[in-house]
Amino acid sequence: MTVIPILLSGGSGTRLWPLSRAMRPKQFISLMGDLSLFQSTAMRVKDMEGVSSPLVVCNEEHRFMVAEQLQELGIEPTGILLEPAGRNTAPAIALAAQQSLKAHDDAVMMVLPADHVFASADDLTVALEKAVALAQNDYLVTLGIETTMPATGYGYIKKGSAIDKSGFQIDTFTEKPDQETAEKLHQSADHLWNSGIFVLKASTYLRELGQTEPGIVEICKAAVNQAVNDLDFTRIGKDSYAGCKNISVDYAVMEHTDRGAVIPYSSAWSDVGTWSALWNEGRQDNSGNVVVGDGLTVDSKNCYLHSESRLVTAYGVENLVIAETHDTVMVTTREQSEGVKTLVEVLEGEERPEAQLHRKVYRPWGNYDSVDTGSRFQVKRITIKGGQATSMQKHVHRAEHWIVVSGTAEVTLEDDTFLITENESTYIPVGAKHRLRNPGKVPLELIEVQTGAYLGEDDIVRFDDDYGRD
After folding, report:
1. How far, CA to CA in Å, does 229 sit from each of 207, 296, 469?
2. Cα gap 342→348, rounded to integer Å
3. How many helices (H) and strands (E) does the chain have?
4. What is the pLDDT of residues 106-148, one digit of tens each?
5. Which residues pair with 270 in a beta bridge?
6. Where are the alpha helices (DSSP H) in 13-144?
7. Is the peptide bond before 18 cis (omega within 30 degrees of 0)?
8. Residue 105, pLDDT above cutoff 80
9. Which neighbouring-strand residues pair with 111?
């Protein structure tokens, strides 16, 4: 029997804005230690006995972050499936099931969201082993978290009849309840939080999904059959997948099947989905405040302060969240932190770049930090990793000046290729084909000054790219 961890990494984490944004969401950020949440998830299953390398399902825009963060851990994935568009968990798991069946007769899939925090890796391993045993008998198993408070941000599962002394049949699901209902469910010994973690056979899942949503099964099968390999990634059929229904695995399968089972999990767990959840998980001082970065509280209680680039202070307040990044400051109450996603929706409606991008933007070749912007200029600090290069490209509306701060740059400008080193510079005219490469092993640092009437990131015409980007 083969057990394949399926890491679902398609979320955008909008409730943790401005720290989490669409182009670098919370799962790729170090929130609870040195590793990102995605890396912590991969490490939990790395050394499990009888478990293969993970299969990752992720957003196409996040593919290089996935590959780089796995490489940092020395983990070679079974594959990285790229969703051309997010369609929720039911289709994502169906893609993984179809891909798994191409390599194995009938693998058990261990479906893990990439953004959860567990206090005890050992307890999680025991629970997952119990779930695998039930899944081998064609149960669709989920982990149910024993409640610690009347949470309105989680769904609930009611336990039914016992199964083999290790789990329970699922009686009913309750979606995120109001406060009064959450109080009642928390007081009931029969209810658990719905973790979103599933253990199930690929064939069993597709069979049950086919009973309720046969269109998803057919679309995902066609999309996987049309898949093509691109570097370390597998691009599924975009045209086939475009018409797939957007629906969660709970709605599509778990609320309808008679094969649903739940394994209780009693150790501490969090999906760190909100600022309030980060406060719960953080190290609180004697006044209940959690401070991350350069922060100071005076006569304040139960606040969460997050600072990236400057001193953040709070005086005489309670239950506030103050989150500062290089380009934004967000203030809310801990009780209202679930609603930050609404703020992001407003920013998206106004087409504010802060809804999608951090000031520091990561690319497969390195990163850039937009340090200053005016009406007709923009200044960036660019870092190129050793041996990496930008695409061969041109800009229709802007010119660029490059000044090397450290390292050596190999510049291609039209048909000419030359080197520039520290304290040297070059000029890229509007419309000129150009490329920047770091021929050395240490990072190349340079300052780029853009000038022109339009400085948007979409003013790029690519002719050649090492990373397969359009």
Report:
1. 27, 50, 14
2. 10
3. 11, 30
4. 889 999 999 898 888 888 888 999 999 999 999 999 999 999 8
5. 117
6. 37-46, 63-73, 89-103, 121-135
7. yes
8. no
9. 6, 198
Average pLDDT score over residue span 302-309: 96
Predicted confidence (pLDDT) per residue in 227-273, tens digit: 988 888 999 988 888 889 999 999 999 999 999 999 998 888 888 88
CA-CA distance, 291 to 280, in Å (whole number)?
Answer: 12
Return d(Cα 92, Cα 79) in angstroms, integer.
14
Torsion angle defined by CA atoms of residues 4, 197, 247 and 63, in that order, rounded to the nearest 10 degrees: -50
With residue 195 as reference, give the H or E element that holds it: strand 191-201
Distance between CA atoms of 259 and 167, rounded to whole angstroms? 12
β-pairing, 269-270 vs 290-292, is unpaired
Token pair, residue 227, equals 């898949």
Beta strands, E only, 125-247 = 140-146, 156-163, 167-174, 191-201, 228-230, 233-235
399 closest CA partner among 358, 330, 453, 348: 453
Rounded Cα–Cα distance for residues 139 and 349 (Å): 43
**DSSP alpha helices (H): ranges in 248-338?**
249, 275-281
DSSP state of 121: H
Contacts by 59-62 with C-beta closer than 8 Å and gap 24+? 59/9, 59/10, 59/83, 59/86, 60/84, 60/235, 61/22, 61/23, 62/9, 62/25, 62/28
Answer whether residue 303 shows pLDDT above 80: yes
Sign (positive or negative) of CA dihedral 195, 196, 199, 204: positive
Does 469 score more than 80 pLDDT? no
Position 439 scores a pLDDT of: 97
pTM across the whole model: 0.88
| Mean pLDDT score across all residues of the chain | 92
Q: How far apart are CA 344 and CA 277, in angstroms?
A: 18
Q: Cβ distance 334 to 302 under 8 Å?
A: yes
How far is the C-alpha of 464 from the C-alpha of 103, rounded, in Å? Answer: 33
Helix, strand, coil percentages in the chain from 3-state DSSP, rounded to 5: 25, 35, 35
Q: Assess contact for 306 and 19: CB atoms under 8 A.
A: yes
The dihedral built from the CA positions of residue 106, 112, 114 and 118, taken in this order, carries a sign that is negative
Contacts of 151 (CB under 8 A, 6+ apart): 182, 186, 193
Quick one: average pLDDT of 358-372? Answer: 91
Strands of 285-428, DSSP E: 290-292, 295-298, 304-306, 312-315, 320-324, 329-333, 360-363, 366-373, 377-384, 392-394, 398-406, 408-413, 416-421, 425-428
Contact 91, 217 (CB under 8 A): no
The token pair at 284 is 């609180």
Tally Cβ neighbours within 10 Å of residue 324. 22
Query: Tell me: the pLDDT tens digits for 147-184?
Result: 988 888 888 999 999 998 789 999 988 888 888 898 98
Q: Considering only CA atoms, give the Rg of the chain.
A: 24
